[in-house]
Each structure stands twice: as C-alpha cells, then as structure tokens.
Amino acid sequence: MQDLTISTSKNGNNSNITNEYQLFTIALMLANKWHNDEAYSNKVWSEITSISRIEIDAMEISFPKSLNFKMHITKEKYAFWLN
Q1: Tens digits of per-residue pLDDT, 1-52?
Q2: Domain ranges, ordered by start, for the chain
Q3: Residue 30: CB partners within 8 Å, gap ≥ 6?
Q4: Residue pair 17/6 in contact by the 8 Å Cβ criterion
Q5: Per DSSP, which regions of the chain are E strands?
Q6: Among positive and negative, which fits the CA dihedral 15, 19, 22, 25?
Q7: Which of 49, 62, 67, 70 could bond to 8 as cystine, CB 3.0-4.6 Å?
C-alpha cells in the first residue's frame, strides 16, 4: 500500500498513515466514537493497537479532514450498495 499523507493543519504539518493496519484502526476508532456515546479513550486504543498515542491523536484529527468531515453516505449510495 502506498503511504497516505494527510494534512493535519494549514501550516503544512502532515500525518502519515503508513499501512492498512493504521488506516483500519483509525476508521474503526472513529466509527466506534460515532456510534457509541461511551467510546474507548485514545489511550486505550493506543494500548490495544500498539500505535503511539501521539499518532492516534494526529490520525484522529487528520483522517476526518481528509474526508472533508463527510463521515456519512447519501441515500443513493446506500441504496446502490444494497443492490
């Protein structure tokens, strides 16, 4: 997998998601936080995944930014994938 570089700030700081494991972890973490009011803390995610808390924090900010904060799908896309 090619590294996914996503901007974490306007001043050019970047966070690199360097493998599928990090990508899956941050997606799972954010989905868990999206759906559960009492989600695991970033410290727990760090302990479970062996990804540093600093990296978890950076990815938690940069991943939604890379999606333009669109963490949902339209009704049309949902219907397409149902068929």
Answers
A1: 444 554 444 444 456 677 899 999 999 999 999 889 898 999 999 999 999 9
A2: 4-82
A3: 60, 63, 64, 71
A4: yes
A5: 4-7, 14-17
A6: positive
A7: 62
